[in-house]
Amino acid sequence: MSNKLQFRHELKFFINYHQYLILCQRLQSLIDPDQHANESGEYHIRSLYFDDINNSALADKLGGLRERAKYRIRIYNIQDNIIHFEKKIKLDDYIAKIKEQLTRQMYDEIMAGNYEVLNVPDSPLFMELYNQMRHNLLRPKVIVDYIREPYVCHNGNVRITFDKELRTGLHSTDIFDKDLHPIRAIDENFIIFEVKFDEYIPEHIKIALQLEGLNRQSASKYVICRKFLKTNTWEDY
């Protein structure tokens, strides 16, 4: 692992609504809601995932490669005040994330196919994206849309999230499209439960979560939503 990257543990689970209610009840007296959440304790996330001409991100995930990466543009609450281009790196059960902020104008230029806006020598991520788009035909693939209920614990830098109403934008790739009506990508009874932490989970939170009683899953939102665009049998999961 690179010394320049901060890798964290990431555990993912599919849970049903009943399990979600039990976990929330246990957590609410032990851990704080994320400060960015609204009065309901939630916020909306919409991401546009990219892949290259060989669908490498999809193939690497389905192939179970221990080291892989995905690129995405992410916005919150369908607003353009914060737009990030992110690279998420996965190494076994560890994750790291690199991101750069985009302006709305840069986003519009990228979507119009003008990748020169990413030719920024001072930004290693932008230069990597620029070269990926020029040489490997990295292009927008699918919109992933969901509601997140986040909790944080500074002791151990633990972040716990419940991702609900996972939806896919199908063939649409404009995350600011006001007429976009994404469709459900998983059964409405299921919620993606994620636990991220640095070195450890405090014992009282570990006891409340009872993670050993849950079944860990390979819950890639990108893969789940890409299945709606499947054209080859190898894209099954």
Automatic annotation (TrEMBL):
InterPro entries: VTC_domain, VTC_sf. Pfam families: VTC (PF09359). GO terms for biological process: polyphosphate biosynthetic process. Residues 7-229 form the VTC domain. This is Molecular chaperone.
